[in-house]
Amino acid sequence: MGVPELNIEEQIQTISNSILDQLRILYQQFTESNVNHMQAYSKIDGIKSSVEDLRYKVGEYVLKVSEGLLYSNLYLDVIMQLEKVSQNIGAASYRFGVLSNKVKNQDQTLLTLAVSMVEKLIAATTNIMEAVRLLSVNAKKSSEKARNVIKIEEEIDDLYRNFELKLFEKQNSDMAFLMLSKDIADRLEDCADLLRDAANDLMYLSFLRE
């Protein structure tokens, strides 16, 4: 393993850390009653823009060094997946802000499920960061962290199905409430799927290092 790999992995950690920052702000939106949702969204959107810029720079770097870099496609996949996670968090934040303006009293059952999904996304992203960090230190431990993400994705899937079921029970509610609530849950579930895909790519990289 050479300098290019280390540089790329360091930048992937930076992107992952930015996603953690976004998730923490989203968590505040879901759990704190006095949040200014448009300000929170503005912060999340600003982080998303920086992630997109960094993804472009890292992607350009990967392509420049690709001749001397084995499995550059795996690195490119990971950064693309993480960029999409960041974008989905932004979309969920915006929609929750709109929903909060329309509905003053949130449905606590649905909100609790959404909070649990965000908590697990934080755990999954933390494991992604660790998996990347450990690639150059201990490949076996890196693959263990990646497997953790795959397990967490299954747990988020269960929460998502439960969310859908509870939402279906409220089919007589306002259409805007139903659509926005469903879209928020969809975005969170998409984040879990993308983190799982990134974890699979990291697991392949770790196997190649063992």
Automatic annotation (TrEMBL):
Gene3D superfamilies according to UniProt: Phosphate transport system protein phou homolog 2, domain 2
Q: Which residues form a coiled coil?
A: none
Per its UniProt record, what Pfam families does this chain match? PhoU_div
Highest taxon, organism lineage: Archaea
Instruction: Give the family, as the similarity comment puts it.
Output: Belongs to the UPF0111 family.
What is this protein's name?
Phosphate transport regulator
Organism of derivation: Stygiolobus caldivivus
